[in-house]
Inverse folding.
């Protein structure tokens, strides 16, 4: 069966959704900016760069303390932040439906939350000035996707499953609020049950070299599951798309939690965005997988190039068909209903050679295969914070001409030549606030 691109079908699904809807961590983890380092109540930005330190799961208390010492060494300010994904029920205007999934279903919404004293200094006074105990600021990419306007009400589902209506008090540029879809204060975070501290932030960095030296002195660059994202970091060929960019490119998933706690996606969403069944991706490398309809062509192109290069033997077809695949609806849980949808839920990632590339292990994928996949619009998981060498994730742009000192399988690019990358900015900027969140939260219980 061939993949299809059902533009009309997608519009029909959204119309049905509208009709359906209209008809129908830690305990004591409070505003730790006040305990880590006193943060004055200021709303103007400090200037300078920022950096974010995070772990797999909640940020370790030792990492928070070390990050605070880093800030102290260089005269910057440290805070903790919370990021993750919660389910959105709907957006309404004057009580009328504007956007959302069918009744009883959710769509993911990635958030970032900072103590009130830090928001203005990190995101700007025009963000902090409008945020309160019942409001959020939304990025303009998500606002354009959903049709949201200032003053609309976004109904979120809290960690315990209860609905929480919040006012969209402002819409700001995508980069300004750190690539998150919505930003809010710790007061709102508590209402939503988003009480797990996930990242330590250093802002007001005036000397990048001094920051790097302080990070080394505190040993933050040697911890296995700890990563430091800097606002001045250049593009990495294995960076993945943010959730906002993913939804623009591939559509918003509709999901819910079954009584058993497992994740399921809406039948109409599956019919619209996924192939009807497992399809053959290549006649030589005979992987069969059910994937997103807009990702299939990229997979076929990559596998065809692998086969033409005489590298078919580097792909374990039997393993991919038994334990890998594309579409596997999974949820990487932070707490309650807070977490991240695995990118396999979108059907946008292919896993293969799983037994020789266990999560967290040194990757053992042929580097030429990796570079071929990058050339065909995929990032590779071998350089994730926790290596995931089995994982190839669609990004929709060539990544083989980005000169970057990847730990494993660096691109073979003349570093003196200009590199080219489209999509997200050439440096992380405020995107460091949430960058890496989705990529570092894959749940590899396979079978598709």
């Amino acid at each position: 069966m061939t993949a299809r691109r059902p533009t009309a079908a997608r519009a029909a699904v959204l119309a049905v959704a509208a009709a359906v809807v209209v008809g129908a961590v830690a305990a004591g983890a409070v505003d730790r900016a006040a305990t880590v380092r006193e943060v004055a109540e200021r709303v103007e930005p400090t200037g300078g760069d920022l950096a974010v330190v995070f772990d797999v799961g909640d940020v370790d208390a030792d990492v928070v303390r070390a990050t605070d010492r880093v800030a102290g060494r260089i005269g910057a300010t440290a805070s903790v932040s919370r990021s993750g994904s919660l389910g959105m029920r709907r957006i309404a205007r004057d009580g009328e439906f504007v956007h959302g999934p069918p009744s009883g279903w959710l769509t993911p919404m990635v958030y970032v939350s900072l103590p009130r004293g830090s928001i203005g200094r990190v995101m700007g006074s025009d963000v902090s000035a409008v945020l309160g105990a019942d409001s959020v600021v939304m990025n303009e990419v998500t606002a354009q996707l959903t049709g949201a306007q200032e003053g609309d009400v976004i109904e979120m589902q809290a960690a315990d499953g209860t609905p929480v209506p919040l006012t969209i008090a402002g819409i700001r540029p995508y980069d300004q609020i750190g690539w998150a879809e919505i930003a809010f204060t710790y007061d709102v975070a508590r209402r939503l049950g988003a009480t797990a501290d996930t990242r330590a932030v250093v802002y007001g960095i005036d000397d990048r070299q001094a920051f790097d030296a302080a990070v080394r002195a505190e040993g933050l660059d040697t911890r296995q599951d700890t990563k430091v994202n800097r606002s001045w970091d250049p593009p990495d060929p294995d960076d993945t798309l943010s959730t906002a960019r993913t939804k623009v490119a591939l559509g918003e998933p509709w999901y819910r939690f079954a009584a058993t706690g497992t994740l399921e996606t809406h039948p109409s969403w599956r019919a619209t965005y996924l192939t009807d069944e497992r399809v053959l991706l290549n006649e030589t490398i005979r992987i069969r997988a059910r994937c997103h309809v807009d990702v299939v062509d990229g997979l076929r192109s990559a596998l065809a190039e692998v086969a033409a290069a005489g590298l078919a033997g580097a792909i374990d077809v039997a393993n991919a068909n038994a334990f890998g695949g594309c579409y596997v609806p999974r949820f990487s849980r932070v707490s309650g209903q807070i977490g991240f949808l695995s990118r396999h839920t979108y059907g946008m990632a292919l896993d293969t050679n799983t037994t020789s590339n266990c999560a967290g292990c040194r990757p053992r994928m042929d580097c030429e295969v990796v570079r071929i996949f990058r050339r065909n619009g995929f990032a590779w998981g071998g350089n994730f914070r926790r290596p995931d060498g089995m994982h190839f994730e669609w990004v929709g742009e060539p990544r083989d001409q980005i000169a970057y000192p990847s730990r494993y399988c660096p691109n073979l690019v003349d570093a003196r030549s200009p590199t080219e990358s489209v999509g997200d900015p050439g440096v992380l900027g405020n995107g460091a606030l949430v960058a890496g969140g989705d990529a570092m939260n894959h749940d590899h219980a396979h079978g598709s």
Summary: Residues 1-9, 11-45, 418-425, 438-448 have pLDDT under 50 and may be disordered. The first strand starts at residue 49 and ends at 54. Residues 7-23 form the longest helix (17 residues).
